[in-house]
Structures
1.
Amino acid sequence: MVKKHSVNNKKKLKKSNRLFLVVADDSKELHQAIYYAARRAATAGGEIALFRCVEPIEGQLWGGVSEIMEAETEQASKKLLLELSQYCEKLGAPKPKTFVRKGVVHEELFNLINTEESIRVLVLGVSIEHGNPGPLINYIINKGSNLCRVPITIVPGNLSDEQIDALI
């Protein structure tokens, strides 16, 4: 049964901005996900959150080399998030919130979604190469769909900015 809200009930509902979460990874389709989320936030009065995960370095490295490498990766991640934040603002979105986590990407992503109640939509770009949508989307489809408490918007990686604008 679909629950209908009367006009009076709508007035009583607390209005909150939609927070669109984008995973800032190294994929080619990141552009489409960012562009979609930023334009959607700009036109719908929403906000953007950018998530970047620094995965642990596998194997043993001599001395403190792994610590130095992880620190450099974390610094590069923060720089990327700053650049992406500025891009989102140029597209009309408010300054994004940023999250850098250390660990396994899908675990940290679901931990963030389940602890940050303001996140309303997860936006992912889907790879169109080789029939493989990407590791995160594969994980969600196969194992993690019950772990995610928010809707997932999947943006095809072959869409142009103009095509995305036409959708919004």
Note: The helical segments are 7-12, 30-44, 65-90, 105-115, 135-144, 161-167.
2.
Amino acid sequence: METINWKNAILAGLIGTVLFDLTGLLILGTWWDIPTVLGAKTGLGLAYGVAGHYTNGVLLAVLFAGIAPSLWGPKWFRPLLFVVAETIALVWLFMLPLLGAGVAGIDASPVMPLITLVRHLVYALPLIVLVQYDLKFALK
């Protein structure tokens, strides 16, 4: 039976979220854009936004660690598959419309779908390196 390596999953989530934010800084020229929006929309401020954003990053990494053996493809591909599915289902079809940006954020910017996808693919890099599992189990 497989178990989650909690330390590695949490570390991957934190590093992935930092990389996500750095990619946003490089592309958009703003730091902590997501935490700022979260804090403003909830009325709880930037500290809450940062905590929520990084907690979400850790929870997604833990979720990935739990389901990784069940995903299709080689080990390096599974985190990419996971973040693409998560980006489409949770970001493009839920979060961005909820924030008034339309499906995939297209109402905010025609390049928003590409930006969100690139940021999430960069988030996946530590998942590839740090979240290990037994491939023999995964291929059963």
Note: Residues 6-138 form one domain.
3.
Amino acid sequence: MLIAKSQYVPILKWRQGEYQALSRLDDQDKNAIVPLLVIPPIEYDFEEKRLKKTVHEHIEPFPKRFCKKWGQEKALIDFHNSLENAVMDSGAKIIHFIFDELRKASCTAIPVVNLSRTEEFIKDIKQVVIKDKRGVCTRIKLSELMGIDLSSRLQALIQYLDLDYSQVDLVIDLGKPDTFEPYPAFSKALVNAIKKIASIEQYRSLTIVATSLQLATIRRPGGEVIRHEWQLYKQLVTDLEKIRIPSFGDYTIETPEFSNQDMRLMKPSGKIVYTGNDVWLVSKGPVFRGNESQMNDHCKSIAGSVHWCKSDYSYGDKIISDTSLGIIKASGSLSTWKQVGVSHHLVKVAEQLSMFHAS
């Protein structure tokens, strides 16, 4: 599976807001996106003091839902580390269950492996790779990129999987760096590290992923937040041009981490995160529960801003427009409004990349 430099590689948690946003994309946008999907950990029931689901209950719906929501488009599939060696009720490893079911449905997916995985998991990955003959995606962290032994570790992994570099998609996941600025200095450090990766030009694809969005630090009523990862990417394209031009990825409007907090104690605010050319516009209000009508004002704020696209730009934009005009009631759930933000973000970034690489 070849990921073109103009294709967008968002890292998405496989939760309702995210997979519903994916399913709402039109065919043109789907073709422009290769999502890296992370199957989340099983949620904990703090009241019952146990996991909310068994491994089987958590994993069993995934293959059918993936095919229904994403179809036969290209995708990369990763797992939260708590699921690494989990098994279904039948005793089958979850990775084998998932890829066996996807194979039956002719859905196209490539497994993701990182250098910190156990030998047992990597052995399971190898079995999937042998069956599907689609290669593998290797996802490395910023700390690993800066390590002195990265090339040898990658070489050992690829050799064990009986692959060559042309069968490997390399994703460099910077996560959420402490700072991105100055962009030229950060880019230079990354480029120097990337240059040291043996045979970097031979990998099937190279993608740089990062995020700078920290919603927890944004106070009411919100405001504009610079999309530092987008600014860094544009600098990297210039600095890496003679080596190879990478694809771009981010975490959409989410954070890399999975929350494991007791939601009974949490009081999340009502908000909309709307992606502009170089910033996010965040409209943030009081606690969402019991104040769902606030979303009408948030929608009016977004639709009246200089960053507003148009009502038919994406599914999310349609919801914002209809809510601001009173066509639909300002209610829904937090997942609904995450879907709205993710939907717009996916279309916006896909369009940006297409225009950026066409210029």
Note: The domain at 11-264 is CATH 3.20.20 (TIM Barrel).
